[in-house]
């Protein structure tokens, strides 16, 4: 009788662990809706009444990878970017006007622009989730370049 009870408890504990693992695996993390870097991004931003968010990145950049693993996985950052910005990832390996303009800039880099392509804010280096959130909120609240110089 004791043996059956112990076996039953062990099986229940194992099943609850499997259920927890499966539940965590099935819940998708929110992701940033990265857009392609095209000239049409500014027209799209005007139509959607959003700002443009550029993530300047590179394959060789360790802090870019760290931001991908931390800052850009933070649920608040992801939600705020997706709600207020058209996010564009600009790799130094790509081509296009936007990429050419920012090719020589430091990586990682975060650039926020208005729908006319005017730079509002440009920060170089790693940004943690809290700092990124504060910066985005400040830009959304006052999207003029003069306010962020």
Concise description?
The protein is an alpha+beta fold and 149 residues long.
Structural summary, described in words:
This protein has 149 residues and is an alpha+beta fold. It has a domain at 41-143: 3-Layer(aba) Sandwich (Glutaredoxin). Helices cover 47% and strands 17% of the residues. The chain has a 4-stranded mixed sheet with strand order 2-1-3-4. A hairpin with a 5-residue loop joins strand 3 (109-113) and strand 4. The model has no long low-confidence stretch (mean pLDDT 85).
Strand order, largest beta sheet: 2-1-3-4
- Structural class, please? alpha+beta
CATH third-tier fold name of the domain at 41-143 = Glutaredoxin
Tell me the name of the CATH class of the domain at 41-143. Answer: Alpha Beta
Overall, the morphology is: elongated
- Main beta sheet strand tally, sense and closure: 4 strands, mixed
- Uncertain regions: pLDDT < 50 for 5+ in a row? none
Number of beta strands: 4
What value does the Rg take, in angstroms? 21 Å
Cα-to-Cα separation, first versus last residue: 75 Å
Roughly what fraction of the amino acids lie in strands? 15-25%
Helix content: 40-55%
- Name the CATH superfamily classification of the domain at 41-143: Glutaredoxin
- Number of helix segments? 6
Helix/strand order, N-terminal first = HHEHHEHEEH
Q: For the residues shown, what is the average pLDDT? A: 85
CATH architecture tag of the domain at 41-143: 3-Layer(aba) Sandwich
């Amino acid at each position: 009788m004791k043996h059956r009870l112990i076996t039953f408890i062990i099986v229940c504990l194992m099943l609850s662990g499997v259920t927890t693992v499966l539940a965590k695996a099935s819940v998708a993390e929110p992701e940033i809706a990265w857009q392609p870097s095209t000239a049409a991004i500014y027209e799209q931003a005007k139509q959607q009444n959003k700002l443009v968010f550029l993530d300047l990145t590179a394959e060789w950049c360790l802090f870019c990878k760290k931001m991908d693993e931390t800052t850009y996985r933070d649920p608040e950052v992801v939600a705020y970017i997706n709600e207020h910005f058209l996010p564009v990832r600009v790799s130094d390996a790509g081509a296009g006007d936007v990429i050419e303009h920012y090719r020589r800039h430091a990586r990682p880099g975060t650039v926020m622009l208005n729908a006319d392509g005017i730079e509002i804010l440009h920060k170089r280096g790693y940004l943690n989730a809290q700092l990124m959130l504060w910066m985005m909120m400040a830009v959304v609240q006052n999207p003029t370049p003069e306010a962020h110089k």
